[in-house]
TrEMBL record:
Residues of the signal peptide: none
Name of the protein described by the UniProt record: Protein ZIP4 homolog
Native species: Papiliotrema laurentii (Cryptococcus laurentii)
Keyword check for ATP-binding: no
InterPro entries: Spo22/ZIP4 (IPR039057), Spo22/ZIP4/TEX11 (IPR013940)
Keywords annotated in UniProt: Meiosis
GO biological process, one term: regulation of synaptonemal complex assembly
Coiled coil: none
Length: 580
């Protein structure tokens, strides 16, 4: 290398060094300062590329010159230093959510690796230790590029360089056990990077081929439990991501297709089944690896082993249950039963599996008995932990049940469960309010059944001696919703039914809704009874109101008018005026 070539690289490295200690930079620096960093990176990569291109053309094998600082060792040392600084900057940027800094750090990794590569010009192939290190740098750099800049062309270029290192390492015998382990780790990193790149490119078949390569009979990969866990986890994560995409794609296709587009439906179904098969293949690979791990010494005792195994099985089951293929649906239901025992490992897993089981039965429709459905619903409720996330999820599942009678049964079962457990008392208001919101949407001709459901709910609250719902806002919301239901029925001329709903809003557990909510509810119920001609019931409800409230006497006055009692009309009129 000429003095000018060497000096150009050294100057570019010195310029970049001015910014290394200040990373991440975007949070504090000006836009011009950030641009300076990008220019410094571009200049460094430019001079290094010119050097390597010239070196390849000339075919020279000379080193940089006399002295350590002017040798390829200097290039290698500086490259590793820049790459390591970029790695640290990436971590800091990720913790701070600084996306632009992650992008800069990824470019800086590339610059560091270019320096390391330049050090090898004329000295190829390098020893295995250098191959392992450089392959590790390639894999981490590719991963950073895919996550930040999405520069697939550059990532592919680096992977092609990595393939050269792979070839060298596979055809050279390690000198020690430590060398063998380093080689296995480096090659595994490389293959997993190839999988990651293929997944980003939506080329799942290529990704599967590299998984097969890892699991093949190639003796250069002496995989231990830690290695296998990495591969199994990546298989599961890839399959789960693909499953979610497939589910979204199905939903999109379902919305786009019209009722008579038979050809489109068949094409979409075939396309969906092909994707489904690929997703299942990833879960099958993960399952195979887990089985292999369980046969190895200490495999089944790994802390993560059971959780990973359960995650894989749950994902597989979700695919089968969502499938259009009847055989896969049957397999999914059988898998549910097989893994129910595994649900004891965590409470969260038990809940998720109970929900999956309910989904499976709902999908089968009328072929499932009511007792079997109730058993599944009760299992879900029993496994519901008293936190906002799971209670909200369970309420959503309960009110997603299409059979109204079964939905009301499930809601009552959930309410009973909340009343039995002191931790569930805080959620009684949520359960009751959600029920009332759902009931308001029910047609008026079916409100009798709903009335009985809500009446039973209040009886259960009475039996549990729960005198308030814990949250005054929820109590007010429940009372208001009961008034709305009563008002809807009143407007339709169903006065008797409306009075019953208004009377429920006078329940003691809703007394804190506002200062006179009980009296207001009783007066509304009495008015409905008057319109229905049930004056005795109206008088009973009015008797439960405060005698000092003018509104109560006014309703009594209306009742007397309706009954045609002129003497009482006059007396009540005086009472009303005396209270106002």
């Amino acid at each position: 290398m000429s003095h000018d070539e060497y000096q150009a690289i050294r100057d570019a490295v010195d310029t970049l060094n001015l910014y290394l200690d200040g990373l991440p930079i975007t949070k504090t620096a000006s836009e011009s300062r950030i641009q300076e960093v990008r220019v410094a990176l571009a200049q460094l990569m430019g001079v290094v590329e010119r050097y390597t291109t010239e070196k390849k053309k000339s075919g020279r094998k000379t080193r940089l010159g006399e002295g350590d600082t002017r040798s390829s060792d200097w290039l290698d040392m500086e490259g590793v230093r820049v790459w390591t600084a970029a790695t640290a900057a990436t971590k800091t940027a990720q913790e701070g959510g600084l996306e632009e800094d992650e992008n800069i750090a990824a470019s800086m990794r590339v610059a560091g690796f270019r320096l390391v590569e330049a050090a090898l010009e004329g000295n190829f192939p390098p020893p295995q230790q250098v191959c392992c290190r450089n392959l590790h740098m390639i894999c981490r750099t590719v991963s950073a590029l895919l996550k930040t800049s999405d520069d697939r062309a550059l990532a592919s270029e680096l992977l092609i360089i990595g393939a050269d290192y792979e070839h060298i390492m596979k055809h050279s015998a390690p000198r020690s056990e430590a060398d063998s382990q380093d080689r296995t780790k480096a090659l595994l990193d490389f293959y997993l990077a190839r999988v990651e790149t293929a997944v980003v490119d939506d080329n799942l078949e290529i990704a599967l081929s590299f998984i097969d390569k890892i699991l093949g009979t190639d003796e250069t990969l002496d995989l231990n439990l830690s290695h296998l866990r990495r591969v199994a986890t990546l298989c599961w994560e890839t399959g789960e991501t693909a499953r979610i995409k497939l589910s979204a794609k199905r939903a999109e296709i379902s919305q786009e297709l019209s009722a008579d587009s038979v050809t489109k439906k068949s094409c979409a179904s075939a396309f969906s089944e092909e994707d489904e098969g690929t997703v299942i293949a990833f879960f099958k690979k993960a399952e195979t690896i887990v089985d292999l791990m369980s046969s190895m010494k200490g495999g089944a005792t790994l802390p993560e082993f059971e959780a990973l195994k359960l995650s894989i099985l749950k994902s597989q089951t979700r695919v089968y249950l969502a499938s259009q293929d009847k055989e896969r649906q049957i397999l999914g239901r059988s898998m549910l039963e097989l893994i129910r025992g595994a649900s004891r490992s965590t409470e969260e897993a038990a809940y998720e599996l109970a929900v999956l089981r309910l989904h499976s039965l709902e999908k089968q429709g009328n072929v499932v008995s009511e007792d079997e459905r109730k058993d599944a619903i009760q299992a879900m409720i029993d496994h519901t932990r008293w936190n906002d996330k799971e209670v909200l999820s369970t309420l959503s599942e309960v009110h997603g049940i299409r059979d109204m009678a079964l939905c009301h049964w499930a809601n009552h079962a959930l309410l009973q469960s909340a009343l039995r457990d002191p931790r569930g008392h805080a959620f009684v208001g949520n359960i009751l309010l959600t029920l009332l919101v759902a009931i308001r949407k029910v047609p008026a001709e079916r409100q009798d059944v709903c009335l009985q459901t809500v009446t039973n709910a209040f009886k259960a609250i009475d039996q549990a001696r729960l005198f308030e719902l814990g949250d005054r806002a929820k109590e007010a919301a429940c009372a208001t919703m009961l008034w709305h239901i009563g008002g809807d029925l009143f407007d339709k001329g169903k006065f008797r039914e409306a009075s019953s709903w208004y009377k429920l809003s006078a329940h003691p557990c809703l007394a804190r809704a506002n200062d006179n909510s009980k009296d207001r509810s009783n007066r509304k119920a009495a008015l409905c009874c008057i319109r229905a001609g049930n004056y005795a019931q109206a008088a009973e409800y009015l008797g439960q109101c405060s005698p000092h409230d003018a509104a109560t006497h006014y309703v009594s006055f209306l009742s007397a008018v309706e009954q045609g009692e002129p003497l009482w009309d006059l007396q009540l009129a005086f009472l009303v005026m005396s209270r106002t």
